[in-house]
Amino acid sequence: MASSSCRSTSGTYGSGNITGDRFCDCGLRAPLQVSNSVANLGRKYYACPTRQCGWFRWASPNVKPSDSGDDRSSQPNFDFKSSERVERINAEVVYLKFLMCVQLLVSLFCVVLIIVMLCKL
């Protein structure tokens, strides 16, 4: 029977049992997962499988997205298609903001034109 100190990784990244498994505070084996978030895309982590206890640990604590910048070599499972999709969406957002500004300018021009025409009456 394993002691709780062998099963828990609550305090450090390196602790765990002899097989390298990680266990959450519920005592369940926490599976290795891969992040799909934009901020941590492709980064591996362990988390409580039921999400009841909220236990979470990065698989590699030395790699922080803020430290690595755009160095994709530090993220071995980086999905370039997802990155390209995010970049395309960002470009579309910029374009839509530009169109919104153009629409605002045209609307203001129309309002000024109407005011000028009303003043001439």
UniProtKB/TrEMBL annotation:
GRF-type domain sequence ranges: 24-62
Any keyword Zinc-finger?
yes
Name the residues that span the membrane. Answer: 94-118
Q: Tell me the lineage of the source organism.
A: Eukaryota, Viridiplantae, Streptophyta, Embryophyta, Tracheophyta
Report what the protein is called. Answer: GRF-type domain-containing protein
- UniProtKB keywords: Membrane, Metal-binding, Transmembrane, Transmembrane helix, Zinc, Zinc-finger
InterPro entries recorded: Znf_GRF
Q: What would be an example GO MF term here?
A: zinc ion binding
